Amino acid sequence: MKKSIVILGSTGSIGKQTLEVVAASDSMEIVGLAVMGNIDELENQIQRFKPKYVAVFDESKAKELKDRLRSNTAVLSGMEGLLELAVIEESDIVLNSVVGSIGLLPTLTAIRNGKTIALANKETLVVGGRLIMEEAKSHKVQILPVDSEHSAIFQCLQGEDYNNISKLILTASGGPFRGRTKESLVDVKYYEALKHPNWDMGKKISIDSATLMNKGLEVIEAKWLFEVEMDRIEVVVHPQSIIHSMVEFKDNSIIAQLGSPDMKLPIQYALTYPNREKGNTTKLNLRELSRLDFFQPNTDTFPCLDLAYEALRIGGTMPCVVNGANEVLVEKYLHEEIKFYDIPKYIEKAMIKHKSFQYNSIEDVLEVDNWVRNWLKSEI
Ligand SMILES: NC(=O)C1=CN([C@@H]2O[C@H](COP(=O)(O)OP(=O)(O)OC[C@H]3O[C@@H](n4cnc5c(N)ncnc54)[C@H](OP(=O)(O)O)[C@@H]3O)[C@@H](O)[C@H]2O)C=CC1
Ligand SMILES: CC(=O)[C@@H](O)[C@H](O)COP(=O)(O)O
Ligand SMILES: [Mn+2]
């Protein structure tokens, strides 16, 4: 029997690579695909993978697709359609690779319906980590990390007792501006920030890598996934992105996971877990690797990392505020409405304005997410 996969965000960087993984495997098939509004690409995907269902978030685009489509694929639409797709009976696993906190509700809905989750959408755990992990436990649902660092840690922890973890060591490439001074980045343009040295990713996460907010979000993601407190999560800059992360144990042994920087590897691991299948990524040739470097992150040039740690220290709804502010600010930076250092500046302002509280429901989280987005509108 083939494993039936639903991909939320199939037209994005992770979504397309997931389709490549599925296409190359004999053990998986696609039953559902969801996108925001890129129906041209979705139509190609429908022809190739013949999913039973698709969901298009943008209602008018969904209607356009319905009018165009000459196949038996059912077209769902809006948030309702996205949630419906997240819980279809035919699926064995839901890979969530939408971008942003909009991914929270589909993850939660899938968990409440007992669906195994392959999670690329890190914002889910940043904004609602406590709730998600509680629900996953109570519904006995497994969350399989897709983010490369978390997949690496998950792989390092196979067969290990989590009580023996001494610390998690997340590697960061340092992004396109590694080694630069703050002064030199004041007027840096978004298209320079999009040039990641090692990974080909969507725009939002590429800007996050350039500010180091990506690593901040990943520290929060790691805290929830592996139940490790923030003072035992360390970030080390590793420009080659060959070691994808490490775990140090009580006995001072460190286990690392290595591979060429290609997301198809963690995607495949999540989809085939606990098995491993033949991979199609470039093999590492250790003899050709001349060196592996490690440095301390420069939080003077990249203050976003410290802001994320501070949000985690405060706890409650503060990480949600940091995430919501960051999403708005990255979008504005991409549209040249603000400058590079306005990103940390306004995130910090939002943190000062917000009084964090312990959320008890998804409604609490969504309200805070909404608040920070509206507050920024009036502030900038
Ligand atoms: N790219 C990477 O290598 C990595 C990404 N991640 C994480 O994975 C997630 C996805 O990143 P990435 O693939 O780069 O992002 P992209 O911007 O490339 O793709 C985003 C995808 O989400 C879809 N989407 C956005 N909003 C909605 C919505 N409301 N309903 C349905 N679909 C929606 C988009 O559809 P449309 O095309 O129609 O707009 C698109 O398919 C992010 O959380 C990121 O942090 C983690 C590790 C690595
Ligand atoms: C591929 C992946 O998981 C990204 O999150 C990547 O880690 C980004 O690179 P940085 O280390 O520069 O943030
Ligand atoms: Mn990552």
UniProtKB/TrEMBL annotation:
Q: Which residues form the 1-deoxy-D-xylulose 5-phosphate reductoisomerase N-terminal domain?
A: 5-129
Tell me the pathway.
Answer: Isoprenoid biosynthesis; isopentenyl diphosphate biosynthesis via DXP pathway; isopentenyl diphosphate from 1-deoxy-D-xylulose 5-phosphate: step 1/6
GO MF term set: 1-deoxy-D-xylulose-5-phosphate reductoisomerase activity; isomerase activity; manganese ion binding; NADPH binding
Report the gene name: dxr
Q: Which parts of the sequence bind 1-deoxy-D-xylulose 5-phosphate?
A: K122, S148, E149, S173, H196, S209, N214, K215, E218
Q: Which NCBIfam families match?
A: Dxr, PRK12464.1
Please list the residues that bind Mn(2+). Answer: D147, E149, E218
- Say if the entry is tagged with keyword 4Fe-4S: no
Q: What class of enzyme is it?
A: oxidoreductase
Instruction: Identify the keywords attached in UniProt to this record, alphabetized.
Output: Isomerase, Isoprene biosynthesis, Magnesium, Manganese, Metal-binding, NADP, Oxidoreductase
Q: Which reaction does it catalyse?
A: 2-C-methyl-D-erythritol 4-phosphate + NADP(+) = 1-deoxy-D-xylulose 5-phosphate + NADPH + H(+)
Q: Where does NADPH bind?
A: T11, G12, S13, I14, N38, N121, E123, G202
Q: Which domain of life is it from?
A: Bacteria
User: What family is reported?
Assistant: Belongs to the DXR family.
Cofactors demanded by this protein: Mg(2+); Mn(2+)
Q: Per its UniProt record, what InterPro entries does this chain match?
A: DXP_reductoisomerase, DXP_reductoisomerase_C, DXP_reductoisomerase_N, DXPR_C, DXPR_C_sf, NAD(P)-bd_dom_sf
Q: Does the keyword Magnesium apply?
A: yes
Identify the SUPFAM superfamilies for this entry.
1-deoxy-D-xylulose-5-phosphate reductoisomerase, C-terminal domain, Glyceraldehyde-3-phosphate dehydrogenase-like, C-terminal domain, NAD(P)-binding Rossmann-fold domains
Its function, per the record, reads: Catalyzes the NADPH-dependent rearrangement and reduction of 1-deoxy-D-xylulose-5-phosphate (DXP) to 2-C-methyl-D-erythritol 4-phosphate (MEP).
Query: Matching Gene3D superfamilies, A to Z?
Result: 1.10.1740.10, NAD(P)-binding Rossmann-like Domain
Protein name as it appears in the record: 1-deoxy-D-xylulose 5-phosphate reductoisomerase
- Record-listed E.C. numbers: 1.1.1.267
Q: List, for all copies, the residue spans of the domain called 1-deoxy-D-xylulose 5-phosphate reductoisomerase C-terminal.
A: 143-226
Pinpoint the DXP reductoisomerase C-terminal domain residues.
258-374
